[in-house]
Structures are given as C-alpha cells and as structure tokens.
Amino acid sequence: MSRACVDSPATPVARRPAIDTPDSGPARPARFTVATPSGGYAELIHRREQEFYEQARDKYVSEYQFTTANDIRQIDRLLLLEVQHFRTQWFLTSGADYQLNDFDAKEEEALRKAQKEIGSQIADIQRDLGVTKSQREKQQADSVGAYITDLKVRAKEHGVKREKELGRALELMHEEFALVGAWMRSNQAEREKLGFPKAEDVLTWIQDYVEVEFKAVDDYFREKQQRFWVRSM
Q1: Dihedral angle at the C-alpha atoms of 196, 198, 201, 202, nearest 10 degrees?
Q2: Considering only CA atoms, which of 131, 53, 127 is closest in space to residue 85?
C-alpha cells in the first residue's frame, strides 16, 4: 500500500524506479543543484541529498589538498557515489522512497545489492585518493614522527650553536681581561703604545670588537641554519 499523498486519488501515479539505471534514468526530475569541486554543477533529487553533498564536499575540500585535475575529478565521482549510497540507505531505512512509495521485497533486494556495489566503488576511490581512515592515521603518524625527528635535529644544532657562543665568549673575555689589565698597569706612554691612550678607547674597543665578534656567532647561525627552520614552518 502506498503512503504517497497525491492531489487526485482517482488519478494513478506513475511509479519510477528508485535506483538510477541506463534504461530508467533518474528516479525523478532533478531539482537541486550543487557546485562540484571541479567547478561544475550536479543535480540531485532531494534537499537531503543536497545538504549531504555540500557537507561532504566542504569536508573533502577543507581537509585535503587535491591539486591534480584527475584527483579533483575523482572527488566529483566520489561525492556522487556517496550521495547514491546515502539515498539507498535512506530508502532501506524508511522502507519507502522520497515520495513515500513503499518497496516490495524484490525492490529492497535490488537496493541492498546496489548499496553494496556503490560502497565497494567508494572504498576503491578513497584508497586511490589516500583518504581512508587507516591512510589518514598513517599519514598523521608519519607526520608526527618526522616532526619529532626534525625537532631533535634542531635542538642539537641549537646546542652546538650555544657551545660555539660560549667558547667564543670565553676567548673574548680573556682578551678583554688581558687588555684591561695591561692598560691598568701601564703608564700614559705605554698606553699610547698599546693604542689605547684613554679609558674611553678601551670601551670603544669593547663595543667595536668584543660585542661584534660575539654577535657574529649568532648571526651566522641565523643566516646559515635557522633561516631554513623558518621556511619549513
């Protein structure tokens, strides 16, 4: 018994297949248009399908970076198959189509068979695109492992840089102590021979030589190694 509501009970309603086939075409005229990832349009037969399609499309587009034309076309195909899977699942769960026409046993069996075939096609495309759950988990694990490895390398490089800074700082401090000690022990004539006749000359040497030499170690690290860190972030 049909649960369909029609305008005239006396007028028979033509029943069309709920599954698209080469002979029957769509189950009903397409009424809902959606934009595809490739830039085209597709027509669906119910508002529920439109909402399902748009949510699935937005998820694929936001979570994955597909750049090749072939991959994008595969996403187009995948989305339409997922809509068909959604449709057959809805029909089987409700026991009727969108117009509330009941299915007989033969039609339900055809729906189950179609759903199984569609599910197999969906799984194949998802594997090809690398978007299955197991593939996502593997990619995430590989990404985390690579990040930790890279972090260890950077920590080691930073430690080496600090050791170089410390070593150079000690060298510069010894030079500074030696110069200041010699200047303090010298008379004016000896200070002029040293090239530092006034105390201000010693301070200038510290600023122009000691500070610059120490900073050169850090500048070299930033230019030769740390700049690659920034690019990879």
Answers
A1: 80
A2: 53
Between CA 175 and CA 178 the distance in angstroms is 5
**Span 67-107, pLDDT tens digits:** 788 888 889 999 999 999 999 999 999 999 988 999 999 99
Rounded Cα distance, 35 and 12, in Å:
36
pLDDT of residue 4: 39
User: Quick check: helix, strand or coil at residue 54?
Assistant: helix
Can you give the pLDDT at residue 121?
A: 92
Share of the chain above pLDDT 70, in %: 65
- Give helix 211-221 / helix 133-185 axis angle, nearest 10°: 170
CA dihedral sign, ordered 207, 173, 171, 200: positive
- Provide the 3-class DSSP secondary structure of residue 102: strand
Give the pLDDT score at 152.
Answer: 66
pLDDT at 53 over 90: yes
| 3-state DSSP percent of the chain in helix, strand and coil, to 5 | 70, 5, 25
What is the C-alpha to C-alpha distance for residues 129 and 155, in angstroms, rounded to an integer? Answer: 35
Q: Are 205 and 179 in contact (CB under 8 A)?
A: yes
